[in-house]
């Protein structure tokens, strides 16, 4: 069909006009075009657990599960969340006032920004960040302010994710009278860092000193490898009152497309977020809330969370072994399902032809492009998760997701080993 030049031009709104072409719209089609094994985007290419899928199937057959739910979320899910999370927060959570179900963690975060940001309010983000934060902030009139988490270990060797550190003085220097919110992400995407108690205490003390709301994005809170490791900032002294913790059914049960998430916090903070969310989406889809509720009800007795962690740990080891063999240093993730690989030793042929678009981006875009095209494995350039001024910090890294089947990881391993002649 011949393409037709648009005869009508309607100017887009400022709030979307500033969006740049995002990394996904470059690398997802590229992975398809060159039939690369896609370790780029963090979605599972294996099905959710049977008991959760079965619960969804049954929910679709019940009329009450096919109609509007309460804007707070279905009681069964809020009750299940309260039961599962109360021991983790060390307090009895009230499912009526302290929990809201959102359309994925992302929409929950959007609703918090909608509820708390005025034009020009500043939000402190640690880099690298989950890229959706930015548009969620700017669409609600806010201004992102950045502070990098820097690799402090020897980047030429494998590094523990805990060796990526935030400089607390630098973080404090970003706070102004307009600062309203600080966003924390632990376990962290893409570093795999699980913030220590001391780090959380320091961040919490800053938030208290400057009266900031803390959004603690803990979507990977069931995916960390050292059982002692993950701490919740909301449980630290005095911080419950200023923290909204964000969770994700997508990450917890391998159902990223179901778009179920939740916010947990004190009534005074949750109520405005609920008010905003009610006007954004009114309510979250009903049958899949029911299925996630049943997921939580049964997870404990089925030992689901433990076996899921063991499966991810196995996948992590499989992929790490490949980079070990290639001699490429990695950040060893303590949580989440990403590995940051140091690509400095990869020598992309100097006469390699890249599309012009990639010359406007940092070096990691070209390394990942070459890898997808010539090696057949797609990773994501992590400079996408930095502000312009700090992108250079990421240009020698690539992010690989290991939330994939054993077959996919084996196929990726086989291809990645072809990279040996290009490694100095
Ligand atoms: C750090 C972080 N926060 C939030 C999300 C969004 O989670 P959801 O899919 O539940 O919206 C993601 C998804 O990749 C993430 O990595």
Automatic annotation (TrEMBL):
InterPro entries: Aminotransferase_I/II_large, Kynurenine-oxoglutarate_AT, PyrdxlP-dep_Trfase, PyrdxlP-dep_Trfase_major, PyrdxlP-dep_Trfase_small
Obligatory cofactor(s): pyridoxal 5'-phosphate
Pathway noted in the entry: Amino-acid degradation; L-kynurenine degradation; kynurenate from L-kynurenine: step 1/2
EC numbers on record: 2.6.1.7
Start and end residues of each Aminotransferase class I/classII large domain: 37-416
GO biological-process terms attached to the record: kynurenine metabolic process
SUPFAM superfamilies: PLP-dependent transferases
GO MF terms held by the record: kynurenine-oxoglutarate transaminase activity; pyridoxal phosphate binding
GO cellular component: mitochondrion
Top enzyme class: transferase
Domain of life: Eukaryota
Assigned keywords, A-Z: Aminotransferase, Pyridoxal phosphate, Transferase
Quaternary structure annotation from Swiss-Prot or TrEMBL: Homodimer.
Family statement drawn from the similarity comment of this UniProt entry: Belongs to the class-I pyridoxal-phosphate-dependent aminotransferase family.
PANTHER family in alphabetical order: FI04487P
Protein name: kynurenine--oxoglutarate transaminase
Source organism of this protein record: Dissophora globulifera
